[in-house]
Amino acid sequence: MSEELAGLTVGLIGAGNIAHVHVAAWKALGARVLVHSLEGAEELSEQYGLEVAPSLDGLLTEAAFVDIVTPSATHKDLALAAIKAGVNVICEKPLTLTAADSHEVIDAATAAGVRLYPAHVVRFFPEYKAAYDAIQAGRIGRVAVARFFRQASSPAGSGWYRDVARSGGVIMDLMVHDLDQARWLCGEVTSVYAAQNPPTVDGTSPVNVAAHVTLTHEGGAISHCRATWGATGIPFKTGFSVAGANGVLKFTSDSDTGYREELADGNAGGDLMIPESTLGESPYLTQLRELAAGLRGGDEPRVQASDGAMAVYVAEAARASMETGKVIDMKTFVSTGAVA
Fold it and tell me: What is the pTM assigned to this prediction?
């Protein structure tokens, strides 16, 4: 076990599925983990040797910072409680379910002098970071077209996921990762068009559903994102293809080829390949190490609160497009919250 965060207490709020990978990362970094949750705290504590905080106030008193891993609809109130207590915050995606709420949380953190980071973990996956670095270095030239996909066994058979008011549906819950990636790799978003099949009815998401979102970016690039909640047992898959004048960057998680660069000068990325090996460091560990360093006054991490808010903005615009059948102009949407 690393001793990087030895002596530091992390307040983990929540004990659901995603809590397990966060706990593993914090323990690998040597932190003391204090957990508080309305359900599951005792079980999580027993499994990993954690300490339980019987109250949120008690956790906020002891923690150097909090890590919020609760259902999406609770993020805003928990983040605001931590900020009011003067405690720095890491919050799982989405930062909140609406951009207005994200800005309320960001403004509160700024006023209180509290640091706030959204946990957009895909920025810490080596394949996506390699693509970002290649684009920044101009290896494929100006980005023209990008495609991102993400599919998972549907979580919507039970629980809060089918209630779009609580989860945001498949776009806010699952695709938000790739909406953030599209903006990170291709630039700021200027317009959004989206479709979903089957449609959401009376605020209830279908159990099995696919959403498609097309984004236009400031530099002229067009990106397409697809997210699917599939049948029970369908394997998780994700990937991207980003093309420019001088080459293409590719990755698919269900392939053994890892990340590839196919460049016009023939310098294909054999030496730059990142295998799909599970032996490397967990992206969650990489992420939480970097975010913790930022919270403690180190270098600013690669993802900021404003990135979390923009991902929510784009997801909201996609939902507005689905509901109206219109292309959403992001400048108008961000400034007024209205459909152009």
Answer: 0.93
